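Show me any protein, fold above all:
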Amino acid sequence: MSVSEGSDETELSFPEEEDEGPNIGKYIGGRNAAGQRHGRGWAILPNGDQYDGNYRKGRRHGIGLYVFKNGARYYGQYRCGVRCGRGIFIYPDGSVYEGNWRRNLKHGKGRYNYAIGDTYSGDWYKGYRHGVGIYSFKTEKDNCCMTVRLKSTWNSNVRMGPFELYIGNDDKCTILHGLWDNLYPNGPAVFSFDNRYMLLGYFLPGDYKFKVIRSSGDVEEDEYNQEDEIGNEEDQPEEIKPTLWFAQEIAVYDYSLLPQEPVPLPISDSELSVCSITSEVSTLSQEKFSFYGEGEEAEDEGEEFEMECFPCECDYDLSEVETESEPCKIDANPCAIEVLKQPECPEP
């Protein structure tokens, strides 16, 4: 049993943004006393990429729009020169990620809209689906289109542990509760129908051996072996075989009979650094920061680099950036940034 036949659950990988120096590429904007790019500015980099947004001491810091030469773009928060905080990334194939970032990687809560129409919404960690999330896709059966949602625990993009598979809409929905083992459900599982009736049973390997108790009291082993049907060639590579569903009984809906729900994966309490890739989502990245899109992509997954972080750990305040250069927001055209004047507070 797969989540979606023919679906592609992998996120795109993308080249990193080009670094900037005091005199790299063309630049129009503010500078500080040291000649570094500081405040609001617009830069055209040597590779053809463009950046329009806030700087701090020569690095992208605050709100900004980065447009890649091939049309991909990122709009959101920067910190110490890297994507950090809340932002939206639009990829050339139409895939979109909106959510939290940490050191250029998807990290925290976010939603990824795939080009094929599937979506994943949930937890991310170091660029991977990691934690509890919902993967949704549409399927057609008997000329009827329906939405299927998989709520599961993920570990580095791999489904594992408890899951809930929702088939249908809220008015009429069938839910499969079970456990993932590799690529297929395995062990006890329950189908619930509109929260009224339940079908209890097991997902078991195709070569599972059953014990059959005869009326005479004799115990025999009955085996259903898929190898008898597909052939058993020793030189064939070993494959993970689909599990089979064996129904056991029908009962009235009882919540206590359901398997465990998906649970989040633990993260070390020591991972607290704001600028560290291993840190928890900061309060800044948890602020409401809504965009018009949704979706996501994995870029330079696993890339490690050292970054000197000026007063970024404790002394950073977004208002510091916004007072030096006016805040900006995304417009209907993602390439255009509209500058908003700071509203004046009325006299008390």
User: Anything to note?
Assistant: The chain has two domains: 9-126+277-335, 138-265. The two ends are 65 Å apart (CA to CA). The domain at 9-126+277-335 is CATH 2.20.110.10 (Histone H3 K4-specific methyltransferase SET7/9 N-terminal domain).
